[in-house]
Specification:
The chain has no helices and 22 strands. Strands 4, 5, 6, 7 and 8 form a 5-stranded antiparallel beta sheet that branches. It is globular, with a radius of gyration of 17 Å. A hairpin with a 5-residue loop joins strand 6 and strand 7. It is mainly β.
Length: about 230
């Protein structure tokens, strides 16, 4: 688990399952909270992508770095072509850490974290890259789209349902968690688990006003709030 920290503390702190804690420093910068979280982390915490603010300024940047070698920092800011760093709303990272999805409220861009190359870009919100880095889920006009990044293919799931947001993929890449109006005259949004292949879904409960179901992540086979 990575914990966002304050001005006087390390940039981030990596807490391991056994209880060990590793501080991660990025000299001159502090982590910035965005609505979907100030960072994204790969499997086993090897790669982290984070929004950062230069201390003493409001200038923001996007960095990718290895948790075990924080000196190996890659500045992805110059490769953002769709929006400015201060517009970043959400971050998502594949399990291997090589592909990151960066989104604003209107557009998104999928980047290779090693060289900054653009893998995919588009119009939409809440982009979530699958654990294997092969697929991308996102919302456009209250519709859930799943794109195969290579070879390129796009499907729309739940066409008769207003999907408002998605949180994350299951570890096996079979399901997405999100929030949707599942009925035309529904009084509340529903928290739903969606089969990313068939579009079948199960309802888990209701969501409060302003909650689009984007703050949930999978841990093993269990669903946990971020």
């Amino acid at each position: 688990m990575v914990i966002d920290t304050g001005e006087a503390a390390p940039f981030l702190t990596l807490e391991h399952a056994g209880g060990a804690v590793t501080p991660i420093d990025l000299p001159g910068f502090r982590a910035v909270s965005v609505s979907g979280g100030s960072f994204a982390i790969s499997d086993e915490g090897k790669v982290i992508v984070a929004v950062a603010r230069r201390i003493g300024t409001r200038v923001r940047s996007l960095f990718a770095f290895e948790s075990r070698n924080s000196a190996a920092v890659r500045d992805l800011t110059p490769f953002l072509a769709e929006f400015e760093p201060h517009e970043i709303e959400t971050l998502s990272l594949a399990g291997h850490g090589l592909v990151a999805a960066v989104g604003s409220r209107e557009r998104f861009q999928v980047l290779n974290t090693l060289d900054g190359a653009t893998v995919f870009r588009g119009v939409g919100r809440f982009p979530r890259v699958s654990p294997d880095g092969v697929r991308l889920g996102f919302i456009t006009d209250e519709r859930l789209h799943v794109v195969n990044l290579e070879p390129r293919a796009n499907i729309t799931l739940l066409p008769g349902t207003k999907v408002m947001g998605i949180g994350g993929w299951s570890p096996d890449g079979k399901f997405l968690i999100g929030g949707a109006w599942t009925r035309l005259l529904a009084m509340e949004k529903r928290k739903v688990i969606i089969d990313a292949e068939t579009g079948d879904y199960a309802q888990l409960g209701t969501l409060s006003e302003g909650d689009y179901g984007v703050y949930f992540r999978w841990a093993s086979t269990m669903l946990m709030p971020q």
